[in-house]
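Case study 2.
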Amino acid sequence: MITLYGFGRIFPEGHGETKDLWAQWALEETGLPYRVHALDHTGGELDGEAYRRISPFRQAPVIDDDGFVVAESAAIALYLAEKSGRLIPGDLQGRTRVVQWCFAAVATVGTTLVCMDLIGMFDSGKAASRLHAELPQLAGRWLGELDRHLEGREWLAGTGFTVADLMMASVLRGIRHSDLLAPHPRVQAFYDRCRARPAFERALALYAERLGVRVDDIR
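Prediction:
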């Protein structure tokens, strides 16, 4: 059975949610049997030697599949798709197209959105005014291209939901309460389709229960 190492309580600093939700969503989509090991990050469990041995950067999530350990949320989601034979095509070109969009989610769109989060956290006084002005513009560029790609499509890389859609929706979740999606109706509709999936609803409910919060507070 797969063990998912994820956070066991919400961050007291209020710095948003963690990517173990990605992994739990992938587990729910694939139907693979799993259990959750809820990490006590406030008690120092992430800094302990036992966790250091399985997580190179002492971050969550990590999965342990009967001794095979995988860290990094995107790698975990891809591994689960490959292992289950779901969420990813079996042919080389189909698989590569899905992986391309996985990289687009985490390396292009996600990187810019993370930079926006970081500058908001560490430069609340807006000393770096140019970054505060230009990062949202760059994010808008990526979202605009994504919106164009989604014209006539429900999903990013084919006719069905794949791990690429899961990753992109997980990245977009970070801006769900902002106004960045408003100019991009196809992206908004894509995000809504993804979060309406029963597996996501199950994962979100389990995540909220683990963190001790209400689902409606993190929806």
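The beta strands are 2-7, 34-39, 62-65, 68-71.
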